Each structure stands twice: as C-alpha cells, then as structure tokens.
Structure prediction request, 302 residues.
Amino acid sequence: MRWEDARRSENIEDRRGEEYAGGGFGGGPMMGGAGGLGLGTMVILGIIAYALGIDPRILIGGAEMFNNVRGGGQTVERVQRPERQTTAPTDQIGQFVAAIVGQNEDVWAEQLPAQKGLKFQPARLVMFDGATESACGTAQSAMGPFYCPLDRKIYLDTSFFNDMKRKLGGGGEFAYAYVISHEMGHHLENLLGILPKVQRAQQQASSQAQANALSVRVELMADCLAGVWAAHSQRKWQNLETGDIEQAIRTAQAIGDDRLQKASRGFAVPDSFTHGSSAQRVEWLQRGLKSGDIDSCNTFSR
Ligand SMILES: [Zn+2]
Prediction:
C-alpha cells in the first residue's frame, strides 16, 4: 500500500525506549522479560493459562480489556490523565503508524458525521516496547495490540508486526494497517455507545460462553469497521495496491481464534472464542470493504 505521502497524525505517543518499572501484575513472571515475548512465548503462556484455568485472554492474543472495565453512560467513562507530550516518531515504522492513524482520522472525521450524525473524536495511539502503563492496567507486548476505552488509547508494540510476518504468515503494510484500523474500530464502537452496552450485557450474562459470544460480535464489528475504513481510504487516496486486500484477508485468517487455539492446544473450543473464527473474521472484513457502510457492520442484528 501507499502511505508515504499521507498526513501524519499528531495523536501518537511514542514511549518506545522508556523504562517501565510499574505494578500491574505485581512483578510475576510476566514482568521483566516482557519486552522479548514473541508468539512462541504467547502460545506457551496460553497453554499454561489453560492448564491453570486462567482465562488465556489475560495472557495472550489481543487481550482486549474492555471486559474488565466498568462502563458508564453513553461512552465509557474517561479517566483523566495528563497527556504525555512526546516527539513525533521519525523512524520508518513510527511514520507508518502515524500515517495510518492519520488516514483513519481523516476517513472517520468525514464518515462518522455523514453516516451516523456523530462527531469523531480522535483516539491516541501509544507506541511502546515491552510494557507500559494504561488506564486498563499494564500493557504488555505479549497481549498484542489493544484499545483501552478508559483512556481512549490504542496500545501497540510494533514487534507484533514482526510476529505476524514471521510466525503467522500475515505480514505486509496493509495487514498492519488492518490491525491498527481494527483497534480504531473499537474506538468507534466506544463513540457509538456500543462498548458500554456490551459491558453491561456481559456483566448480566449467565455463562462465560454467553459473555464470549458478545465479545465475538464486538471483535467482528471492529474487523468490519476496518474494512469500511479501507473502502473509504481507497476512494480518497487510491492507496491500495494489487494484493493488499488478499494480504489483509490472510491476516484475518491467521488471527482467527480457531487458528490460534489450534496452534496452542491442538483443537478449537468454539464457546471460548472471543474474536471469532478465521472464516468469520474474513467475512466481516470483506463486508465492510464492499459496503463502506457503518451500519453493515452491525453484528448484533443477526
Ligand atoms: Zn479487537
């Protein structure tokens, strides 16, 4: 994909290279070495979590934290913290992230008012390595990228991109852009008031399976919204190149819960899915890509 000429977002907090010595999990085995955790380690952590009966989402795989958050009114109540000022990233990957966030901001600043009559409020994206603090607890690279609705920030350790490339067969710039836009999709779900509703429903859910089914809908909607972004960014900037869509689809396939679970356990347990199967992720990404329509992403209506 082409992004070099794109405007760079100013909502990037570059915390790479910072020392992190903070709380979170209380200095257990997760701390300390978190910086170097790759997919192999994540898979092992998944097996350990499974054996110990810990929810593996806490340890691996895009542990998206909205589950742990107590929701408030229209959007999730915000934790006010002073914004950290950092200098704009100048390296290649930092500039790429800033460009994709900028393109997301430009598309959503048009499409959210046009389609839903809502003003888009930008999210900040925190680049970090190893571990850093978030309003949802300690962010660690082994969790994969996530969106924290409490501080409205996306947390991204770009070493995840290396894992995608080397171990998931899903590398490439548009695949990385899809990951960033999926997280931005969660921010839109927050602005649309969907996250707090889902949180309330999950608190009332009668079983873990029911709560997981709600998570799957939230995740597939974010995949679809990433597709909506791609559709409009293509219309605006013709930024896609041959093979880009296939690349994102390969990634969606690679990060389906069934694939990841089979890789870690050898079999898949549908009730424990929280992101959706590979086929579902591909289907919803394509739905957004084809329609460019936010309403087509309503995973709760079917
Ligand atoms: Zn997600």
